[in-house]
Amino acid sequence: MGNSDGTFQAALNTRAGLNPFAVTVADFNGDGRADLAVANYGSGDISIRFGNGDGTFEAAVNYRAGPSVGWLAAGEFNGDGKPDLAVATASGVSVLLNNGDGTFSTAVTNATGAPVAFVTVADLNGDGKLDLAAARLNDGLSVLLGKGDGTFQPAVGYVGGGSSIAVGDFNGDGKPDLAVTGLAYVGRYGSVAVFTRQRRRHFPARCRICRRRSLDRSGRLQRRWQAGFGHKRRLGAARKWRRHVSDADHVRRRRRFRGRR
Asked: What is the mean pLDDT of the chain?
């Protein structure tokens, strides 16, 4: 617990389930005290522990979420003002709706086509209803738009990323964009895929140019640029690449070009 000066007291361990993987905080039972929701990877369930207001918590109540539970996020999905839960699982994204008293309904799984490592909550299409963004383990992103009643539209998949997601306005248009990190075993180590919103209220089929840096055999830093599909996108990628070339490289290229003439 915090001492209000940036320091902390000794840790007070509380039991959850088997192999707890992630935790989030919200007032699930509406008593004004912070509660815990813990995702247990090994047992495939969620442990809810109500806070007593003094840094201690009541005994855990477990709810089945799905196989290989990963990240989880709290959000209000059905308009009742109570925080619900979205959980990343090997089957997709499981949604557990709050009954209003801190208990939860049976998990409903929303398929994403691949195991999910990470899930986050945001209003991605500006309709005032919370949506889900899920990072798939097979190198991809799934967006599930909320209907406002606790259910979601079918997942729409995008190429890029695969381990964690951050939401922010990266191009200054006032709309939420997504940054998705990649995983080593799917060939995206050291990469971040950035998805920006389009006027038609969803994301492009592939992220804009994603720069990856890696060391070649000689130890020099290489810059690899990855563009989307199609000739026009490759052309746009080449133009953007030129803008990122350093001034020194530009001078050397211009001198070589003049020498050839």
From this structure: 79
Closest-CA residue to 147 (of 113, 195, 183, 110): 110
Residue with the larger pLDDT of the pair 72 and 10: 72
pLDDT of 221 strictly over 80: no
Q: Which residues pair with 158 in a beta bridge?
A: 141
Q: How far apart are CA 159 and CA 81, in angstroms?
A: 34
- Taking CA atoms, 119 is separated from 134, 136, 163, 203, 218, in Å, by 4, 9, 9, 17, 38
Both tokens of residue 143?
Answer: 């967006």
> What value does the CA radius of gyration of the chain take, rounded to a whole number of Å?
22
Sheet containing 20-26, strands listed edge to edge, beginning at the edge strand earlier in sequence: 20-26, 35-40, 45-49, 61-64
β pairing state of 45-49 and 61-64: antiparallel
Q: How many CB atoms lie within 10 A of CB 124?
A: 26
Whether 48 contacts 61, CB under 8 Å? yes
Closest by Cα among 105, 98, 63 to 78? 98
Residue 195, token pair as written in the block: 């998805």
Residue (of 69, 31, 71, 72) closest to 50 by Cα position: 31
HEC assignment per residue over 125-179: CCCCCCEEEEEECCCEEEEECECCCCCECCCEEEECCCCEEEEECCCCCCCCEEE
Q: How confident is the model at residue 255 (pLDDT cuts 50, 70, 90)?
A: low
pLDDT of residue 140: 85
Indicate whether 151 pLDDT > 60: yes
